[in-house]
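Hello Y.,

Per our agreement to keep a running log of every chain we model this quarter, I'm adding this entry. I've kept the format consistent with earlier entries: sequence first, then predicted structure.
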Amino acid sequence: MALKQLDLLPDPKRRTPSGRKNPDGVATTDLVVSAHVGTNADVFPYVLRLHVTTGAKIADVTYGKGVFWRNVNIDTYDLHPSDIADEIDCRSLPYEDGSFDCVVFDPPYMEGFFRKGNTTKAGAGTHNAFRDHYSNGDEAPKSNTRKWHAAVLQLYEEGGRESHRVLRDHGVLIVKCQDEVSANRQNLTHVEVINAYARIGFFCKDLFIVVRPNRPGVSRLLKQVHARKNHSYFLVFVKIPKGKKASQMRF
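Predicted structure for the entry above:
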């Protein structure tokens, strides 16, 4: 005999063999998982679903062509898109302190963007596609004092501090990044960003891994010494209220 839907709900009076009450909730496989094969547009809705409430006031400060939002009903949020192409710098936003529930931050995370004289800026192949989606890809960053991979981190740090300023306490910062090899050195960018943001005043609440659906390739290869990156990250941070510590954050 088929069970009624009501039969699947836990009995609040039912107890485990140890005498404890069964926790509320139902068994399900409809869960948001941490790793996805797909595109940014495929994964971003899951990040919002789990960490941003409907109606939240969101500033996407590197909106570009709005790639992240292609599979999201924008009408369900109070979205404020901006980009350097609109002369709004993510490091100096025209917003009041503590005025947003969420900030989305997706700066160029390949150090090729910061090499003067490099006409391709970030190389070829997939980097060309990324540059096409980031409207400022053909310009070098302004007021950047570091070089190569350090310039990438500087942009993340400066943008992170400005995001911290415009977020309310417990506000959510969603950051896109990717690890990279620069000058034959392996850089775990997502770890570096997490550590830098901890110093700014953020707690890293969650991490999503985006695995590209197609296989990467190179035009010429003499010897491979590092695993080729075919994944990137959405990092989810929460602004720690003044006077509190990360160890006191509970969700």
